[in-house]
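Give me structure tokens for this 373-residue protein.
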Amino acid sequence: MKRFLKKTLVSILVGTALLAVSVPAYAADDIKISEVEFRVSWPNGKPEAGESRDFPTIQLSKGSGKCSIDESSIEWADGDDDDWVRGEKPTIYLTVDADENYYFSSTKVSITKSSFKVSRRSGSDRDELKVKITLDPVEGDLDVIEDCWWDGRTAHWEEIDDADKYEVKLYRNSSTVTTVTTSGSSYNLYPYMTRSGDYTFKVRGISNSDGETGDWSDESDEYYMNASDVYTGAPPTSGSSSGSGGWLQDAYGWTYWQNGKMVTNSWIYVDNDWYYMAANGYMMTGWIFVDNNWFYLNPISDGTKGAMKTGWQAIDGYWYYLNPVSDGTRGARKTSYQLIDGKWYFLDVTSGALWVNRAAPNGMVADSNGVLH
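Here you go.
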């Protein structure tokens, strides 16, 4: 029993000695560094795109005399590329070393310029504080758009880096028609082609981050608009006719966009008219069967193509009556007996065509205008 106790006591003493060796010894009077603040400046001015990378000047405005920046630890977070790229945010990694008799513990890090950002990185300990500093985005000129072209009556252009939106200026016979803005790389300009002539356009990029506006591109090739093909519909409203909102035409027809998405399988109400967009997103024309009713959408390119027809309509040699009332079935084709403007008519129960010069099922006779007597 005595031998066992003696052996156990020796083990405890040895273990205690090892523990003392493995834990760093900090003096009881070591001082905690509660805050470190950095001051960062560009000696040669704020960097611009295309310039070679140089580190800014980084100094301690708080903590100096208690700690110091390890100059050898300063590095770019994304490597040492040769030149600055417009829009990138210069990000620096560095390490701060505590001076003798000082240590870091829950140390607050800050930076004197509010637009810069600073944060602690993992791996920090009592002797070292690892820091990440993010500076303002690199400025510079936007690229000039070099390639723009017509596809039908829709303007197209190449996208450029760091442009959030594009400004498009339309000309007719060298005179300005309108200037529009879109976030896409195409824009349907047909609603602005209200007169015949030679149309061209030019475009430039805009950056939302710093308000930078690029130089205008060269003018596109000419698109000639015949007098018989000019747009005759209602004037376009703000935000219409772009890839992110409004009408867009391509070689297959018209589509309509809302919040950057193509409308499908749905009625839309635009410029006081109803249109129906098919499953593939294209505007439908002619007879369509939707919501258990037949509707007729204008098939003629007269400025209201695709618009829902209402009231009396002569279609392919027959008269039809399409509900003109906004009761939830506006535009629906009527059938059977109908009292219209004080007169009775009979519309074929299958096709909806008006019966003329024949007897209706109730024995009354429809005259040449379809009125029952």
